[in-house]
Write a structure and sequence with these properties.
Blueprint (H helix, E strand, L loop, with lengths): L2 H17 L3 H11 L1 H12 L4 H26 L24
């Protein structure tokens, strides 16, 4: 197993356990977001940057990617339920909306 693969699996387990995201989403999300730590390492190699600052920034960015996935993925990728209207509008009337 490559080092990157082992690191992605480690991140997948953290995402799954802490954000209650199913494995079928945690695996690709973790693999995709793993580009952030790679970029952070490259940045540290090429700049005179504080390790702790870059580490904190990277963790914040990874969590920032995962939180919306946890909150929005199932809503965004499932059809919204539509409550049937008691009265259906005719095509000439347009959509059947109740004005408050």
């Amino acid at each position: 197993m490559r080092k990157r693969d082992a690191a992605v699996i480690y991140l997948v387990e953290i995402v799954r356990d802490n954000f209650d995201i199913p494995m079928e989403l945690a695996i690709p999300a973790s693999s995709i977001s793993f580009g952030l730590p790679v970029a952070a390492g490259d940045y540290l190699d090429s700049k005179d940057a504080d390790f702790k600052t870059i580490e904190d920034l990277t963790v914040t960015m990874v969590i920032g990617c995962v939180e919306p996935l946890q909150k929005n993925y199932t809503t965004m990728h499932n059809p919204l339920k539509n409550k049937p209207s008691a009265r259906q509008a005719s095509p000439e009337e347009g959509p059947d909306l109740e004005v408050l």
